[in-house]
Design brief:
This protein is of the alpha/beta class. The protein has 2 domains: about 5-180 and about 245-295 and about 365-385, Rossmann fold (3-Layer(aba) Sandwich), CATH 3.40.50.300; about 300-345. About 55% of the residues lie in helices and about 10% in strands. It has 17 helices and 8 strands. The protein has helices at about 15-20, 35-45, 60-65, 95-105, 110-120, 120-125, 135-150, 160-180, 180-195, 205-215, 220-230, 235-250, 265-280, 300-305, 310-315, 320-355, 375-385, and strands at about 25-30, 50-55, 80, 90-95, 155-160, 255-260, 285-290, 360-365. Strands 3-4-2-5-1-6-7-8 form an 8-stranded mixed sheet, sandwiched between helices. Helix 2 (about 35-45) crosses helix 17 and helix 4 packs across helix 7. It is elongated. The model is unreliable at about 1-10, about 195-205 and about 205-215 (pLDDT under 50).
Length: about 375
């Protein structure tokens, strides 16, 4: 769909209103733009009056540290000790191995097959690296949390934007992978040989398998074909679940929040993702411009600092004229630099608002890192302020 034919969308008046009307928030953005801390801050603020959970796909420890979870995050939910004693907040991190094991248990026709898959050496070695795996497992976890009925708000912190597109595509990619013709072809020898193994199959009948047997060994091929065959028997479950999750993402209870800075590459990726949401008719709850240089500096006058009287400034600040002159020149240089950045941010913020068809929440460039609950509270006040 071209830009000119995209369906119109409009953002709510502010992010606070949007989040209050949703039960699922999916936070997306490029790496390094503050996406994980934004997700945590949104969850922390929402937890004041709703049972909330935030789940990160990022294995870094930033979220656990900021939430005061010294033991770190795991696949199971950890309760966050809120100092004011109000609200309910839990946090978790997607553990790929645990997620895959849960998936195998859920969709295997029998317990014996599930156990056979988990004992398969190929599965044990590559289960965390399957194509589309991270995005699909994030979808699975989201669906599980939603179906549990325990949470009034679920906040999902996704991989960086290009991977977050995989987050949208992961269900179809995973089912296509499992049901693909190549994998069906690979499984044929094992199916033909029955459960006696590939040693009952004549490798000379297939030149490719003959070469593979010589390079990899028949035991590796047997494990691989067994895994493929077992996975294909779970295909219907994968496909049905994928369709359910896509319906959930496109429902009115879900909202996507795009986080970016106003620099070139992250800003372009944010715009690309917004366009993609429009194309897929997925609900955009809001856009956040992080680390924004104060726009007031766009109209600062560096010349005023350069032309100021160093004697008067020095006397007022107890610096002396010479030191005051140096300070004034440094201040003028800083104003010029920040003025240039502020003008860039003002221009790019307008472009982002045009792309998002509505107001964007601007979070100012902070002078300190957000590394604890107090910092998250401060960030949350910027994110969810009333307009």
């Amino acid at each position: 769909m071209s830009a000119s034919t995209r369906l119109p969308i409009s953002l709510p008046m502010n992010l606070k209103e949007a989040i209050r009307s949703k039960s699922i928030i999916v936070v997306c953005g490029a790496g390094g733009v503050g996406k994980t801390t934004t997700a945590a801050a949104i969850a922390l603020e929402a937890a004041r009056d709703r049972r909330t959970i935030v789940v990160t796909i990022d294995p870094a420890k930033r979220l656990a540290s900021a939430l005061g979870l010294d033991a770190g995050l795991g696949h199971a939910e950890s309760e966050v000790d809120l100092p004011d004693g109000s609200g309910s907040l839990h946090a978790a991190m997607l553990d790929m191995k645990t997620a895959w094991d849960d998936l195998v248990d859920r969709y295997s026709p029998t317990r014996a097959q599930a156990q056979r898959i988990k004992e398969n050496r190929i599965y044990q070695g590559v289960s965390e690296q399957f194509v589309g795996s991270q995005g699909y497992m994030a979808m699975e976890r989201l669906a599980d949390l939603n179906e549990s009925g325990r949470w009034e708000l679920i906040v999902i912190d996704t991989p960086p934007t290009r991977s977050a597109l995989d987050f949208l595509e992961a269900p179809n990619r995973m089912t296509d992978f499992i049901g693909g013709s190549l994998l069906r072809w690979m499984a044929k020898p094992y199916a033909a040989a029955g459960r006696f193994g590939l040693r009952a199959f004549n490798f000379t009948a297939a030149p490719f398998l003959k070469i593979a047997d010589r390079v990899l060994g028949s035991q590796v091929l047997e494990d691989l074909s067994a895994l493929v065959l077992d996975f294909q028997q779970m295909y219907d479950g994968f496909k049905e679940r994928a369709e359910d999750v896509l319906r959930l993402l496109s429902s009115e209870e879900t909202g996507f929040v795009i986080v970016t800075t106003l620099e070139g590459p992250p800003l372009e990726e944010a715009g690309f993702f917004i366009d993609r949401l429009v194309d897929e008719r997925l609900p955009l709850a809001g856009a956040v411009a992080n680390k924004v240089v104060p726009i007031e500096l766009a109209d600062a006058n560096p010349a005023a600092a350069r032309d100021a009287d160093p004697h008067a400034i020095g006397a007022a600040a107890s610096l002396g004229a010479e030191r005051a002159q140096v300070a004034l020149l440094d201040a003028a240089d800083a104003l010029e630099t920040f003025g240039t950045l502020a003008r860039r941010d003002r221009r790019n913020l307008k472009e982002l608002e045009a792309r998002a068809r509505g107001p964007v929440t601007a979070v100012p460039l902070l002078t300190h890192d957000v590394h604890d609950l107090e910092g998250l509270r401060e960030l949350g006040r910027y994110l969810l302020r009333d307009r």
